[in-house]
Amino acid sequence: MTQSDTPQQTPGERTMIRLDKLTKRYPGQPGAAVEELTLDIPAGSIVVFVGPSGCGKTTTMKLINRLIEPTSGRIHLDGQDVTRIPVHQLRRRIGYAIQQGGLFPHRTVADNIATVPKMLGWDRARITARVDELLEMVGLDPEAYRGRRPGQLSGGQQQRVGVARALAGDPQVMLMDEPFGAIDPLNREALQNEFLRIQARLHKTIVFVTHDIDEAVKMGDRIALFGDGGRVLQYDTPERLLADPADRAVAEFIGAGAAVRRLSLARIGSLAVPGPPVVERAADAQARAAALARAAESGEEYVLVVDEDRRPVAWLATAGARRPGEGPAAGEEVPLLTPMGPGHTLFDALDHMLSSNASAVAVVDGDGRYRGVLGMDAVRTLINSQALHTADGSKLQEV
Ligand SMILES: Nc1ncnc2c1ncn2[C@@H]1O[C@H](COP(=O)(O)OP(=O)(O)OP(=O)(O)O)[C@@H](O)[C@H]1O
């Protein structure tokens, strides 16, 4: 076991949850479900528990909110031993969201979300306002959804309500047990992105369980990779887990494709990208031709057309792009793919290029203005160079 023996912290990080030699043996079971687990979960971060089925992830979650009691070991919440906190208080401080939402089927969406606020004795007006606020936050129109029952919602909508319910009492900590597990990939991605947006605002301490290493890499500030018998094999940032697996079992779980996964950790906003020539949309034919000629001379295949606010509009092929029988003629406009913004990753860029059979994507800043171009060759070079660098030249991370 690495790291989890001696919990690692960045200076200044406050520990919200401390698991200290936590062990759980279920009666009649030969081995422990969780064994001597020691782990610090920093305040305001998402820690993902990932690992094969039956390795003790759910048991650890249930130990944290005292749905079950440990055989031995301690759990501290914000410095307090949880066994000293009355259970009803603990439930208020810890929100719990589970697979398929775990909603009460006979209660309306509003009643489901209001569970904890009602427990807390809030008045009706405050509860109604909170329910509507949360529905908005998880992307459901309060007018349309507050009166429905779970059976009248899609799986994804149920999960959204489940997340809203877990957030309702404004808990310090959220435990999320495969909250997006039963969702198709497209909706799952949308939910993940929305949840990350919510988290960027709320800064909750979140423990998130998943089977899926890609989800772990995307959602986690840190990942605890569990092996059989409730042992943590590695507790690390996603970057380090992918770049430097602690042992063979970790490497096997991560599986093939670690290099590609690492692309999903590199945000385009923090990368230096080359800025090939542009031509303004308003430029007259002569200026266009001159720009094309200059670009072709320096070996460029395309020039980017930008509008008056420097937002990319289209590509313009240079003479260098012309290949007999295929490809556009010189001066021909080629439609632009959606440009990549600062929040997109190298993985998004590569995916975008592969799925649209393009060899480059335009890169824009947060206001949609042209920053540069990322080509297939540049991505390949970045992978092969084993290192990514930020715009200021400092090393971002290994790839
Ligand atoms: N109530 C219980 N009684 C007896 N054994 C249990 C109980 N709950 C879980 N276990 C066992 O404890 C071990 C850990 O289970 P747990 O549900 O924590 O794993 P998990 O990693 O969350 O699995 P999954 O990913 O499949 O949900 C398993 O071997 C399981 O069979």
TrEMBL record:
Task: Tell me the SUPFAM superfamilies matching this sequence.
Answer: CBS-domain pair (SSF54631), P-loop containing nucleoside triphosphate hydrolases (SSF52540)
| Keywords of the record | ATP-binding, CBS domain, Nucleotide-binding, Transport
Tell me the GO molecular function terms: ATP binding
On whether Manganese is a keyword of this UniProt record, the answer is no
Q: Which residues cross the membrane?
A: none
Superkingdom to which the source organism belongs: Bacteria
Domain ABC transporter as annotated: residue spans: 17-253
Task: Extract the Pfam families matched here.
Answer: ABC_tran (PF00005), CBS (PF00571)
Signal sequence, start to end: none
List the InterPro entries hit by this protein, alphabetically: AAA+_ATPase (IPR003593), ABC_transporter-like_ATP-bd (IPR003439), ABC_transporter-like_CS (IPR017871), CBS_dom (IPR000644), CBS_dom_sf (IPR046342), P-loop_NTPase (IPR027417)
Question: Which residue range or ranges hold the CBS domain?
Answer: 330-391
| Family membership noted in the UniProt record | Belongs to the ABC transporter superfamily.
Q: What is this protein called?
A: ATP-binding cassette domain-containing protein
